[in-house]
Amino acid sequence: MTQRVVGNPIITFIDFLSIVIGAYGFHSTILTLPLPPHLVDAGHWQFLTNLSLVYSLAVFVVGFIAHITKSERLFSLKNNLHPIGLALESIVTMVYWPLRLFCLRLLVEDTSLYPIPMSADLAIHLMPVISLLIDYLVFMPRWKIRTRTAFGICFALTAAYWCLLEYLVDVENGSSYPYAFLNVPHNGLRALIFVIVGGSAFVQFLLMSKIYSVLVKSPQDSTIEDISKKEI
Q1: Which stretches are transmembrane (predicted)?
Q2: What's the structural domain count of the chain?
Q3: How would you label 196-205 residue by residue, b for 16+ Cβ within 10 Å and e otherwise?
Q4: Considering the domain boundaries, does residue 198 fall inside one?
């Protein structure tokens, strides 16, 4: 558990590197990438990828400052923000890469105009989840968020994103949803997609919690194991 404390130089460097790469991705896409006509009116903030990237960058910045200053308060804040970031980035990664590699037409309407260069693609669609996973499995204490709270947050964020899209995307005036698989004829089917996404985020939380329990033994577990060995 010694590496799971504030001030660890390795995760400090990883946070710094994540900030640099994330900032590059932010500049290469959100600040400079032109959108096609059917997406331009809703802007760059209609994309879950961009929202997740900004949130993850905030987690990295708080973590970096916490480790540099050895602030327990900021370290605790980062650890509380982290589960949401990992849930968001896991959804982005699980949805994006299979479609990007095998069925691009479910992401974009015109695959010939897919504009994101690979370096920026990796910076916004892969780096955040890798950095957050490394932090969680190697450098962080156990999540303190309760299962019921995680369930509520996952579906609250899902509903919030749907409301955001309904506010930004004006379908009646020719705009389309940011991801082609959301351009379905009925709201009921679209709602089902969002429920699946929210459920996947919650399952990811349960899975990550289980993996942590299997891979990382708490001091209490180690003490119990040592006592058992002595008794034997």
Answers
A1: 12-35, 47-69, 81-99, 119-138, 150-169, 189-208
A2: 1
A3: ebbebbbebb
A4: yes
